[in-house]
Amino acid sequence: MKKIFSLLLAASAFACTQEKVVEITISNPSATDRTNEITEITSDAVAKLKGETFVISDNTGSQVPYQVTYDNKIIFPVSVKGGENVTYKITPGTPEAFKTIACGKQYPERVDDVAWENDRIAFRTYGPALQATGEKAYGCDIWVKCVSEPIVDMRYKTELDPETRAKISELRKTDPKAAQQLAESVSYHIDHGNGLDYYKVGPTLGAGTSALLANDSIVYPYCYKDYQILDNGPLRFTVKLVYHPLTVKGNDNVIETRVISLDAGSQMNKYTITYDNLTEATPVVTGIVLHEPSEDYQADAAKGYIAYADPADPVNGQIYVAAVFPEKVNEAKAVIFSDKEKAERGADGHVLAYSTYSPGNSYTYYSGAGWSKWGFENSGKWFEYVQKFAQNLKEPLTVTIK
User: Any signal peptide, and if so, which residues (predicted)?
Assistant: First the structure.
């Protein structure tokens, strides 16, 4: 009897264990291999685990890093060849410590910048303290990097260290050359082996910012008013930005909310934009600043992307920028400023993608950048990446949960 009872307990335990296995099958409908692409499932998928901690493992049994996001998604990287599928398992257990790859924060010590990064690229946007100075910087900024670990926080701390700044200030009185050398040794505008900030935004849309149109003129958003960091790694950074009221066709209370997220391994941020108090369908553009006259760009409304190679710097190389659209855009083209506007904005124009924003909906697109010293040796390689990214949006990985 004891033996039968033990067998029943063992069978019952085995059955319980089996019931708590969640199988996630990822299918790739495209012909392109997808490597370390962040995939998401709803947290309802692990309901049968009844709140237990869990691990995700691939088909070799190795643990896979994951993150539970602010909107109750479970995200994790998957790799699946074109036309094939792979299965991942979720089981009860204690996950290994995951390395933080995507992260960011606000820097009140640097006029309220919000800056973020992953293992490929970094970005920043400007805050209320900068707007209070009167400096005009409308778009998103790019910080290039050539190391996979987070480096943005270190750059700020090095650049803004109070003791170093005080020493530079003193040296300028007695030894300007030494002061300059010390300033350059801590500046994030100089590459110290991990990249730098040398992209210029100014009073333009910068690196793929969106804006409403009124009477064919861009209604430039200024710096954000309020921010909230929603996700901060290890695999996704998400920030919610609310802007000061805009005046659009006489309506002086149009408020933009911008949610930006960056995933590990991607060059591209996801933007989700809403405009409160807008009462009618309104044209919206997403733009990349053209710093100089150039033909090294692509604008393809049918395939849903715009892409540009910024002028190459003889020391620091070349920055590449793009925006990609999951929904059809109305038009995509380069628009050159008038001579007066060129002088005002310090740029030649924008590459623009035109869409329409309908009140009560959201406008979603992807925008990001690459660097010639970190994976894209020329603009051709960047354009290939962008085209593939656009195609992958049209052929998303499919997820089956069992």
Answer: 1-15
Look at residue 2 in the predicted model and tell me its pLDDT.
Answer: 41
Task: State whether CATH 3.10.450 applies to domain 106-149+200-394.
Answer: no
Quick check: pTM over 0.90?
yes
Counting Cβ atoms within 10 Å, is residue 249 exposed (0-12), middle (13-18) or buried (19+)?
middle
DSSP-derived secondary structure letter, 250: T
Q: Is 87:69 a contact under the CB 8 Å cutoff?
A: no
Burial 174-193 (b: 16+ CB within 10 A, else e): eeeeebeebbeebebeebee
Question: Closest Cα to residue 368, out of 106, 114, 35, 122?
Answer: 122
Residue closest to 363 by CA, chosen among 274, 276, 302: 274
Q: Are the beta carbons of 329 and 354 closer than 8 angstroms?
A: yes
Structure tokens at 344: 């005002």
- Residue-wise pLDDT for 295-336, tens only, equals 999 999 999 999 999 999 999 999 999 999 999 999 999 999
For residues 311, 304, 209, 41, the Cα torsion angle rounded to the nearest 10 degrees is -120
What is 2-98's CATH superfamily?
Answer: Golgi alpha-mannosidase II (2.60.40.1180)
Query: Residue 50: its pLDDT value, please?
Result: 87
